Amino acid sequence: MSQENVEIVRRSIEAYNRGDLDAVFKDAAPDFEYDLSRAVGPWRGVYGRDGALSQIREIVESWEWVRVEQHELIEVGEHVVVPWTLRGAGRDGIEVEARSTWLCTIRDGLIVRICLYQELQEAFEAAGLRE
Fold first, then answer.
1. Is 9 helix (H, G, I), strand (E, B) or coil?
2. Could you tell me if 36 and 116 are in contact, meaning their C-beta atoms sit under 8 angstroms apart?
3. Does residue 30 have a pLDDT over 90?
4. In whole angstroms, what is the distance from residue 30 CA to residue 20 CA?
């Protein structure tokens, strides 16, 4: 089951990077939650499926290009920890880079929650691991 969870998350990230935003949430549960309460910036809060899609569309449309580069997909029980870097260029061509970590929770083959953490260790702790 763990490899299946990793593949579900990988497919979602790949869909984002090819601009197929509807496919990003193909494996999301109806009560999916996108928790950006720890985010720094204008998109802070907790979103349901529709709100998350709207928020992601707003990000994509605000940039000349944007891409998520996952560093790893680390299975931890029902979770997949994803340290990643967002790279993009604004409308004036200014490139930016931001690093964060997602903690994706998968149940019954569906993503039920994605929570953003600024630090990898915070995500591991939320998944029940201590280093």
1. helix
2. yes
3. yes
4. 19
